[in-house]
Specification:
By secondary structure, this protein is mainly alpha-helical. Helices cover about 60% and strands about 5% of the residues. The strands form two sheets. The protein has a three-stranded antiparallel sheet with strand order 3-4-5, with helices on one face. The protein is elongated and about 115 Å long.
């Protein structure tokens, strides 16, 4: 286990040492601002390395949005048959180069750096031997470095003995650590909300569960376990959250969520009416600007025609001839009048 920790902590410590050496040319070597800014720039380097993966994540999420109608169709078709549904979904994802867990990849790849930095900062103590490529003098300098008056190697749960070695005040450390823990949890929650807004409506249940975990469980976990993180590690995670917020805001502005079923174009509603043709409502023209559309009235049924059968007058309706009831002189006179008009025309 120690070998694994050294394998991931040594490269991180090497990059941190190089950044600190550059900053020492313009800042006081070994000072709190020099070490704090070194951690911030280390975070920026990590995020720049992960940027191609972030772009790949965006493309995968857009493909998932485009596949939403097909996913919903498969869920309806194989309702109750979970095994067949999972096989069909995996085939669909593979054929379209989509990955439902792509949203977790940048976070998962940051965890090794997170634990490596945690291991390195835990060695920031006066009197420590050289470790992870950092000299004893550098470890002692890091132990004395402070952010807002709190040593970067101290945590919320640090005891008085350790704080005495680090020249820290327990009240200051706890106030600074508590504020950073709250900000870390809040920014983690907000970045996940941004990611969900960018992803749009999700129909895949597996992806829905992942989103809920990332939105609620992850910020709560950081808030609970953050009391054990050194201030330097809290600074790293807070910086990466702020970077994520800015990066995702930039992406959302330029790449809005895909409308499911639109083929990735984000198209709007169809121009035609129910029949699919024309530019306006079915059977009507395009309404004038500022005016009201013409009201479309249904066709009035044709009046029944009168025919004669012997001495009786029959009314012809769509259902067939109807024999009138007796004692209807008005109808007979009307029929006679029409009959006389026909004879006159002849």
């Amino acid at each position: 286990m120690n070998g694994l920790i050294a394998a991931i902590a040594t490269p991180v410590a090497t990059v941190l040492r190089a950044i600190h050496a550059l900053l020492s040319q313009v800042l006081i070597p070994g000072s709190g601002p020099a070490w704090a800014l070194s951690i911030v720039l280390l975070t920026v380097c990590v995020r720049l390395l992960l940027f191609p993966l972030f772009v790949k994540q965006i493309k995968s999420q857009r493909r998932m949005q485009e596949l939403a109608p097909k996913i919903k169709e498969l869920q309806t078709r194989h309702k109750g048959d979970r095994e067949t549904l999972n096989k069909e979904l995996m085939t669909l994802y593979k054929d379209n180069n989509a990955n439902p867990i792509s949203g977790c990849m940048p976070l998962l790849l940051q965890l090794p750096v997170f634990f490596a930095l945690f291991s390195v900062i835990n060695e920031f103590r006066p009197g420590k031997s050289a470790k992870f490529g950092l000299s004893a003098e550098q470890l002692a300098e890091g132990g004395r470095a402070k952010v807002f008056g709190a040593p970067i190697a101290a945590s919320f749960t640090s005891g008085q003995d350790l704080l005495t070695k680090l020249d820290g005040n327990i009240t200051t450390v706890r106030v600074v650590a508590a504020l950073m823990i709250v900000l870390m949890g809040a920014t983690t929650f907000w970045t996940q909300r941004q990611m969900m807004a960018r992803a749009g409506t999700v129909v895949d249940k597996q992806q829905q569960q992942i989103q809920k975990f990332m939105l609620y469980v992850l910020p709560l976990s950081f808030a609970v376990f953050g009391v054990n993180f050194p201030v330097g590690v809290l600074l790293y995670w807070l910086t990466t959250n702020v970077w994520s917020m800015g990066q995702q805001a930039w992406v959302i502005k330029r790449m809005p969520p895909v409308v499911p079923g639109s083929g990735g174009t984000g198209g709007g509603p169809a121009k035609g009416g129910p029949s699919g043709g024309g530019k306006g409502p079915a059977g009507g023209g395009k309404p004038k600007p500022g005016g009201k559309a013409n009201k479309i009235e249904p066709d009035k049924p044709a009046a029944p025609e009168a025919t004669t059968a012997g001495s009786e007058i029959l009314a012809t309706t769509p259902a067939g001839p109807v024999r009138p009831t007796a004692n209807r002189p008005a109808d007979k006179r009307a029929a006679g009048s029409r009959k006389n008009k026909k004879r006159g025309k002849r």
